[in-house]
Amino acid sequence: MTKETKFPKDFLWGGATAANQLEGASLEGGKGLNLADVLPGGKVRLSVLSQPGFDFEMDTDKYSYPNHEAIDFYHRYKEDIALFAEMGFKVYRMSIAWSRIFPNGDELEPNEEGLAFYENVFDELHKYGIEPLVTIAHYETPLHLIKEYGGWKNRKLIEFFERYVTVIFDRYKDKVKYWLTFNEINGATHFPLFGLGFSATSEETRLQESFQGLHHQFVASAIAVKLGHKIIPESQIGCMLLYAPTYSYDANPENVMYALEEGNLFNFFCGDVQVRGEYPTFINRYFKENNIEIDIQQGDLETIKEGTVDFISISYYMSRTEKKEKTPEEAGAGNLIGGVKNPFLKASDWGWEIDPTGLRIGLNELHGRYQKPLMVVENGLGAYDKVEEDGSINDDYRIDYLRDHIKAMGEAIEDGVNLIGYTSWGCIDLVSASTGEYSKRYGFIYVDKHDDGSGTLERKRKKSFYWYKDVISSNGDNL
């Protein structure tokens, strides 16, 4: 980062989590079961869920279900928020579990105990001057809506989502200014189960079902933006994209063109709809070549046009390298997005390639395309952490990772990008979404909980805790 670069004085530093990965209390306070509650724990998770026709039933004899307890934020939120405040957080990104407000998702009246819980969380955040940034839907579709309606394939979910959104906007209009509609909305075509709440009927039907489900979410998101601006005039409502700048493997024009097509589809399709308010022209050819026909009902496109977002938020973990003709041996690991291995990049313990410059590239791409304020609301390193005999956790590898990515953000700001905030993912250890593991740790705060279910849930500050505190207090100067 150049010495002249300064983060804006009102830059929003903080951390990010999701309800399903840290709250626990899966059936307390009137909460109903949601998608995450039936996902098995451990590395088996993705292999079980990747099979078409996953039945959303629990088999407690065969699997563990760590999301049921998670790290028990539901009972420990005051302790955890005090630790966030000690680090100096300006903002805390969290989500509301839909099934805590509407246990089945299709009720007419909300669950007061669930509403009160989040009200208490928001009050605790405000006590320390921390601004909540709330994701409305973060892989937490109520299980009843999945089983009874087929998830977001069913247009009825727009109606249920509108009811849910109206209730939380009315209730928290004086407590929450920043909102995100759907978490990593563009990841749904790769893995519809998390974002769209259904398991594809077959690989042949996956794209048709996924894009229809996405259309329903586009309409629902636009309705939420319009409602938010009406109920909370000062609100700022954003979209949230899983962003991975897409490189060509080499200078072969065939590979360059293929990377462009894949990048447009993954990085820009959903953004174009939610930011520009219309389907991009490049999607027409894709739909045609893949025999996808979207049922767009009267008024849908007008609603989408009227409900464009105020800002764009992204998760950034890795870039993606593409090659038109690739062998199985060349395939890269990573965040559900495929590609081939990049020979210039190292990878994490879980095979996710580490590319700080990719974050600068991505921010420049988004700024150039949309000219909207940007936030990085997920970025972090999942790693094995060791507690030393004296109780310390020396996670210098995490500090190095975050330092390099924060430097890249500083360079993007120097490039002219309007970046307004950064919330590091998993600011406290939680259950991994992709693998259901506790051992894949992201946090500045260590939680004594392990993959076999053992642990006291005691919280400990890691070395990175003090480092990030210094980053925030210096507004990014001390890295």
Automatic annotation (TrEMBL):
Query: What InterPro entries does UniProt report for this protein, alphabetically?
Result: GH, GH_1_N_CS, Glyco_hydro_1
* Record-level GO cellular component terms: cytosol
Domain of life, per lineage? Bacteria
Q: Which Pfam families match?
A: Glyco_hydro_1
Tell me, what is one Gene Ontology molecular-function annotation carried by this entry? beta-glucosidase activity
- Name the GO terms of the biological process aspect: carbohydrate catabolic process
Q: Which UniProt keywords apply?
A: Glycosidase, Hydrolase
- Which NCBIfam families does the annotation name? PRK09593.1, PRK09852.1
The UniProt similarity line reads: Belongs to the glycosyl hydrolase 1 family.
Kindly provide the name given to this protein in its UniProt entry.
Answer: 6-phospho-beta-glucosidase
Organism source for this protein? Litchfieldia salsa
